[in-house]
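Lecture notes, continued. The same structure-token format from the folding unit now serves as the input rather than the output. Read the line below as a description of shape only.
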């Protein structure tokens, strides 16, 4: 029996062995495509459903259109900012692609070289030659993690956009449950939280103290409905994120807070998920240096002052003062 694949948007049919589908819808590239080990069982599943449809008089086309149209069929862009990660970025990109391919059918990995001074760009380029789903974005000089994320978002084509730290302290496998949670709760964002009661974190005590202290500061200043804004794995609806990303001014450590604060201000919903964190760095602070603690505080206070000024101006316009 000949096997077929279907475009999950227009449901045009093609021979399974034909890797190019005649679907010309702009910006859409989701093909319901399975490997040889699963296509037979999928075909059997369709035949069984069609038997039920014929028996009970249901709409065959409507049912087939619904098959495979879950959140894992919609395209996913994973943004991985990297600064001086030359020693590990190639293997981490390949590992990410391998891991995500076990649960998602249609994704890209956007590796952003944030003005690195080592071989990070060359190693990312090497990864793109091994896997076409990996995309390189690069610029000089170093602009900060916030800029790297922004450049990645502007490049992203997915229906959903994830942020993932390049050191893989947090496995990309988390994104499967994040996607499921977003689909279940219909939220604009799902973020990892080290402070979630079910999280399992293995990282230095001084980093734990700093994270909790930062949470207290954020709670007092921004009143965000989340406990942890800094864990390096997040998922967003692309339509929501792309609307606000041009207005994000933070290029340093406060970019996460600004994005989440803007989503909350617009009435967006944010869900927190537990994470398993395995600290990969050899030193106690990881990528963060002692001097960066001051930069975190500075960026956070600057963001708070900026958002407060904007609220004041808005209130004055609203009240006519």
């Amino acid at each position: 029996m000949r096997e077929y694949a279907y475009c999950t948007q227009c449901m045009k049919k093609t021979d399974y062995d034909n890797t190019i589908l005649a679907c010309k819808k702009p910006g859409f590239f989701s093909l319901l495509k399975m490997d040889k080990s699963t296509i037979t069982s999928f075909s059997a599943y369709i035949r069984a459903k069609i038997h039920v449809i014929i028996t009970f008089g249901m709409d065959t086309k409507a049912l087939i259109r619904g098959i495979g149209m879950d959140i894992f069929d919609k395209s996913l862009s994973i943004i991985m900012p990297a600064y001086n990660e030359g020693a590990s970025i190639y293997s981490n990109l390949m590992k990410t692609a391998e891991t995500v391919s076990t649960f998602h059918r249609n994704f890209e990995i956007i590796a952003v070289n944030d003005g690195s001074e080592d071989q990070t760009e060359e190693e990312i380029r090497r990864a793109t030659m091994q896997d076409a789903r990996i995309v390189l974005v690069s610029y000089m000089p170093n602009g900060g993690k916030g800029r790297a994320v922004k450049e990645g978002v502007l490049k992203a084509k997915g229906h959903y956009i994830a942020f993932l730290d390049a050191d893989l302290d947090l496995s990309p496998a988390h994104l499967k449950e994040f996607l499921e949670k977003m689909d279940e709760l219909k939220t604009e964002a799902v973020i990892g939280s080290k402070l979630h009661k079910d999280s399992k974190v293995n990282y230095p005590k001084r980093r734990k103290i700093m994270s909790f202290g930062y949470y207290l500061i954020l709670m007092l200043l921004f009143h965000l409905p989340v406990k942890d804004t800094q864990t390096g794995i997040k998922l967003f609806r692309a339509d929501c994120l792309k609307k606000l990303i041009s207005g994000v001014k933070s290029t340093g450590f406060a970019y996460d807070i600004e994005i989440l604060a803007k989503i909350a201000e617009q009435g967006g919903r944010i869900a927190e998920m537990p994470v398993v964190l395995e600290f990969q760095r050899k030193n106690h602070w990881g990528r963060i240096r002692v001097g960066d603690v001051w930069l975190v505080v500075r960026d956070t206070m600057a963001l708070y002052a900026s958002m407060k000024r904007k609220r004041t101006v808005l209130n004055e316009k609203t009240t006519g003062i």
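Point for the exam: The mean pLDDT is 79.
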